[in-house]
Amino acid sequence: MKTRRQPNPSPANAVAAFSLIEVLTALGLVGILFLSVYTGLGTGFAVIGVARENLRATQVMQEKLETLRLYSWDQINSNGFIPKTFTAPYQPGGGTNSGLIYSGTLTLTNFPGTESYCTNLRLVTVELKWTSGSAPRTRQMQTAVSRYGLQNYIY
Length: 155
What we know:
The chain is built from three helices and four strands; from the N terminus they run H-H-E-E-E-E-H. By secondary structure, the chain is an alpha+beta fold. The chain has a four-stranded antiparallel beta sheet, with helices on one face. The model has no long low-confidence stretch (mean pLDDT 85).
């Protein structure tokens, strides 16, 4: 068996390695990539949390307004029948200690307008306030209730 001896490799054929600067640059880019991914995930979860709080606030306000629509005209206009303030809990994890408390106010006023039927309407405003983290938040919903509205068809 004949073996051939290979000549010494030339610098052009030598195996190239990464320099220290190239390695540090690559590690910096990978670090920025991981930081961006984790920041994006954290921001996404925060946005979902705020959206859940807003959805719960909308549900609470809608519940109050839909309940009010079933009252008779005399009940709506009597003093003290409809509570002016209320609270509603929100526990996203299902626990008893964690969660938010929504504080709400319900205001009944005369319907604005000059038409002849405006005396048969009341403007209802439901406002909710809560604190999400350190940010105070508020939502408001309004509707009109009629003397000859939905409650006459149900009762």
